[in-house]
């Protein structure tokens, strides 16, 4: 699916309830609520922030708004790769406590837009106390593959990001 096609879906009307934009990190496919996607951009250089944790790549100026850019591979503790022509930044609207903010996440590639009903969304398996599953809305099977549906508000919570930075740990969602 091309960036133009995805951006057309994202910028369309709000009849996309239960639709999820999926993207790749390595061999795994993840999904976010399409109504939270503001836009998708090809990777471009960012302004780095001194003393920021490694998963924060920097900031960009998006039409007058300063937007933090996070690398989801590093956020999840997945081995880093060199950015290439498929690498994109998904710009998301995050609800954090009583306000909304804009943040971008670097992903390997955009995959598809899927309709995933509440019935199709299954709870993530309990993998034990060591793995934080709060960042997942659930999992869905689509065409014989698993899609991990993320709760971006939990994933990008400033409080959780701060705690993660202090602990020096990545968040494991698989």
| CATH class type | Mainly Beta
Number of helices: 4
Question: What is the H/E order?
Answer: HEEEEEHEEEEEHH
**pLDDT average, as an integer?**
83
Structural class: alpha+beta
Spatial gap, N to C terminus: 25 Å
Give a quick account of the main beta sheet: strands, pairing sense, barrel closure.
5 strands, mixed
User: Can you tell me the CATH topology?
Assistant: OB fold (Dihydrolipoamide Acetyltransferase, E2P)
- CATH architecture classification: Beta Barrel
CATH superfamily: CheA-289, Domain 4
What is the total domain count?
1
If strands are numbered along the chain, what order do they take across the biggest sheet?
A: 8-1-2-10-9
Regions with little confidence, pLDDT below 50 for 5+ residues: 164-174
Helix content: 10-25%
> How much of the residues is beta strand, in percent?
35-45%
Tell me the overall shape.
globular
- Please give the number of β-strands: 10
Primary descriptors:
single chain, 174 residues, alpha+beta, OB fold (Dihydrolipoamide Acetyltransferase, E2P), 5-stranded mixed beta sheet, 4 helices, globular
